From TrEMBL:
It comes from Mesorhizobium marinum. This is AzlD domain-containing protein. Pfam families: AzlD. It comes from the Bacteria. Coiled coil: none annotated. The chain crosses the membrane at residues 12-34, 46-64, 76-93, 98-115. Keywords: Membrane, Transmembrane, Transmembrane helix.
Amino acid sequence: MTLGAIEAWWWPYVFILAAGWAATYPWRALGVYLGGRLREDAEVLVLVRAIATALVAAVIGNLICFPAGPAAETSLALRLLSAAAGFAAYFFIARKVLLGIVVAEAVFGLGFWLGY
């Protein structure tokens, strides 16, 4: 079955919901099943956290090095500066992820608005 298999207006929405559910629900169920049985410092959870962190770092690196859309019009220096400012705000001010994100977005937005 494909996205274009049915011509009804509602079919893409049903397809996306079903595909999203089928791809994520088994992992959620497994997490709930195993979640109560694992210690927080278990090696498998350390591995999972490391992989998740590496994936986030890879996505951020991809956005910095190979931007798409309007971000592609900005300079590499602006993208690097906004990432560094967000990291510095996180690390030196309060160790709050939301603060780092807001600072990085503010620096990037200001630089974009100013034409850098």
